[in-house]
Amino acid sequence: MRACAVVWLCVALLASPAFAKPQRVVSLNLCADELALRLADPGVVKSVTWLSQDSRSANMAAMAAALPANDGHAEEALAYHPDLVLVGPFADPASIALLKEVGAPVVEVGAPQTLDGVRRQIRDLAATLGEPRRGEALIADMEARLASVAVDPSQPRLKAVVLRPNGFTVGPGSLVDEILTRAGLDNLAARLDIAADQQVPLEVVALLGADVLILDRDKQSAPSLADAALDHPAIAALARRMTIVSLPSRLWTCGGPEIVEAVERLAAAAKAARAREATQ
Amino acid sequence: MSARAASAEVGYGPLVAALAALMLAAALASLMIGYARLDVPAALADVFAGRSTAAAVVLEQIRLPRAALGAMVGFSLGLAGAALQGLLRNPLADPGVIGVSGGAALGAVIVFYFGLAGAFALAMPLGGVAGAVVAALLLYALVGRGAGTMTLILAGVTVNSFAGALTALALNLSPNPYAAYEIMFWLMGSLADRSLPQLWLALPLTVAGWALLLMSAPALDALTLGEDTAASLGFDLGRLRAQLVAGAALAVGAAVAVTGAIGFVGLVAPHLLRPLVGNRPGRLLLVSGLGGAIVLLAADVAVRLIPVHPELKLGVATALIGAPLLYGLIDRMRREA
């Protein structure tokens, strides 16, 4: 009797306009763009940021390129008369206030710092978009792939360090740190006494004694000093002593399902590094 | 005045030798001092034995180019400063103040961010040289010969701020999202994580520039007697001007393309050393180059020792020393006038 009542309540709620699927979604953030394109029905997302259309830095570029692009401004979103606007964690509070004032529902897509947070975010956004089953399917696929790269705990763990553009490394307690752990790597940045992401001189990176050096690099991107820091000849010279793996930034910029591919690639690099140590 | 006369008796040869020794010591300090603990003798042994240990890589690929570029860029700025001051007969002429460095930074930025750097190896340093030439010609068109200090400084400010604005514009137009945040490097300069290939690319152009500037010593000495006297002594002033502008553009342009614009070195070095060479602009050239190298190497060691993260830009350190000096110099000129 009680179960029956609950089911009836749910049906009543789902039928009410508050739980109807949003039909006109505009996203003002790269990470929100990608998740929305993965979860929503075709045609529901009306506009995404221009960043999502660049296949060098985005995962859903093919779908995004077919949509009108925006620069992430609130005014642009309003032109589509949206019934849902997705914003990023660093959205301008004034823009959000403006959107709310004209009655457009605003949902923030955050930057999760753990794998659990990634799952929760997918589940939450899937619910918001009225596609809970698609969300669960996405999560189940992630779990299956993560399980297949599960690291043998008897193996000694390898030491790794991350080098991002401008010489930034990734500190402990971050999503990237958890990605490394899942791939069987220990993040050496924990030894550097740094709290969060911080710039590290190249000579410190070289002398850390890492087995694996992970570069955040997109090969064809337009030139910048930030990226040139990863092309320093010292890194090429170190390739004789450690395994160097380039991971495109699109795989670990957002906390989306694509981070599983980052784990897979790092696990493969760890395997190569072990094989190399065995032959030496 | 008597103190200056006494110090001028140091002798040119011993002065050059002392400055060269000091420069080598500063370069050695730059090799020894860094962020990571490095056993330099052991690393050196590895380098010579051809062992590519991490220590050898750090010494050869990171510390060595940093020290060598510090000396090269400092020498270029000090030498170019002394030469321009001799040409314009004005102690405030410095590649940074008059906009030559700013023009060089703009040239290098255009080449680098729009993908031309990969076209051929020398594209980057040549971009810097081209920017420096344009800035020098613009300045010369405004200042001409015998213009007063006021005109020189105003022209320099104009060229400098225009080059800075165009640099910001070029960075904003770059498709790379990081580019716009890199203006600090180009306007303030840094030697952090530079590389050996950058040194080898910049060196030939720089050395050619040094040669042009150093060869102008006799003409600069004659110029102190006035343009007419110098001409009557057989010096072709048009040629001298072209030679100095080309030399400064080569030396400063190639340097700035690697390290960004670093101010005040070309002002501080000649100012401190001028009394020691009896105010002879020809003799000031070499010692000012050595002095510039010492100043820049010392500043670069200092930015690595100051516990500020991210590392201070070199131009900040040189401005902290140079700006008060420039202020004092202008103040003295104002009172003497």
Word description of this protein:
The complex is a heterodimer of chains A (280) and B (337). Chain A is globular and about 65 Å long. Chain A has helices spanning 2-15, 30-39, 61-65, 74-78, 93-101, 115-128, 132-148, 175-182, 202-206, 225-228, 233-238, 259-279; strands spanning 25-27, 45-49, 69-70, 84-87, 106-108, 158-163, 168-169, 185-187, 198-199, 212-216, 243-247. Chain A is of the alpha/beta class and 280 residues long. Chain A starts with a helix and ends with a helix. In chain A, the strands form three sheets. Chain A has a five-stranded parallel β-sheet with strand order 3-2-1-4-5, with helices on both faces. A four-stranded parallel β-sheet of chain A has the order 8-6-10-11, with helices on one face. In chain A, strands 7-9 form a two-stranded antiparallel sheet. With 337 residues, chain B is mainly alpha-helical. Chain B has a single domain, classed as ABC transporter involved in vitamin B12 uptake, BtuC. Chain B is built from 15 helices and no strands. Chain B is globular and about 60 Å long. Mean pLDDT of chain B is 90; it is low at 1-8. Chain A binds chain B through residues 165-167, 198-199, 201-204, 206-207, 209, 221-227, 229, 232-234, 237-238, 240-241, and chain B through 34-38, 52-55, 57-58, 60-63, 112-113, 115, 117, 174-176, 178-179, 181-182, 185, 192-193, 195-197, 309-311.
Characterize this entry briefly:
Chain A is of the alpha/beta class.
SSE map:
The complex is a heterodimer of chains A (280) and B (337).
Chain A: H1 2-15, E1 25-27, H2 30-39, E2 45-49, H3 61-65, E3 69-70, H4 74-78, E4 84-87, H5 93-101, E5 106-108, H6 115-128, H7 132-148, E6 158-163, E7 168-169, H8 175-182, E8 185-187, E9 198-199, H9 202-206, E10 212-216, H10 225-228, H11 233-238, E11 243-247, H12 259-279
Chain B: H1 2-8, H2 12-32, H3 40-49, H4 54-88, H5 100-113, H6 123-143, H7 149-173, H8 183-188, H9 196-214, H10 217-223, H11 227-232, H12 237-259, H13 265-273, H14 281-305, H15 314-336
